[in-house]
Prior knowledge:
There is one protein chain. The protein is an alpha/beta fold. The chain contains ten helices and 13 strands.
Amino acid sequence: MTAIRWTTVLALVACANLFAACAGTPDGRSGGLVESWSARHQAELVEARLVPQPAAYEVLRFQWLDRDRQREVLAKLYLPAATARRGSVPLVVFSHGMGGSREGYSYLGANWAAQGYASLHVQHAGSDSRLWSGNPFDMVSRLQGAADEAEAINRVRDLGFALDEVLDDAQLAGTIDAARILAAGHSYGANTALLAAGAVFARPQGTLSFRDRRIVGAVLISAPPFHGEPDPEAVVRPIGIPTLHITAQGDEIRIPGYRSDYEDRVRVFAATGSAQKALVVFRDGAHSMFTDRLGPGGRDLNPLVKAATVDLTLAFFAEVLDGTSGLLAARSARYDGLLARFDSAPRTVP
């Protein structure tokens, strides 16, 4: 099988950001340096009032085994507080960036849950925070394995498997609305969400597609282009569900021999085939500003961008699931000082 060559870039990205980007989260089972980073980041989020009060949401953790693949799948589910739920709730399934875990992006999961959305954060065993443990001299080979085609495919299959498990879980019967599911992800996770949303690859043996038809909309944060494909734009053109693309002017990856900036994220937006899609570009910022860390992008800007990201994603959810047309554009006007660009392709009604 021809390799999905764009994934090799992600290994380089992870090397460049080893101590600065998408890591800093525990593996959900063991302690150590990475876990202490995550605890510190989440304590800072609480201090900055970027997460709701604990009474506003609930958390469940899962440790599954996909027997077909003999692959462990960990997950963390944020739920609206039981006292606030009235019937079944929509679900967002979230994919982390390279070296992350189910514990990351907690400000998104907690805030979405407090506003009535379940948020399922899936951990990808081959490209999670356990990459940072072990012999440091083997780091490059571990990262290369995490970014190969097999792992890229396993990641999107992790999402589908986790959805199956949650929807079939007896303790959650009646909690999740199976007709109102969205996908979201950051960086490598955004590519995973794109695959679940309908990105396709032309191969000599036929078209590769991993579309999950239960997903009705997708949030794509700092989505890298599909580098190495003969026609990267053709990969995302078949996507037809609504999409929200989020980036920043400083959303840049720069390492020897490779550079990718926010214009790459803009090109992914432009090429995506969704009739209903929107692009949010924050001023300045950084690639890892959208993780739980408060440092990237600047201590003043970072919390503002996090709060705005929560607000704008909630507006997108309402547009997709409730048909609240124009809400995202109206909400974006609140952030004129933060946004360098907002584009929207509204849904057309036949």
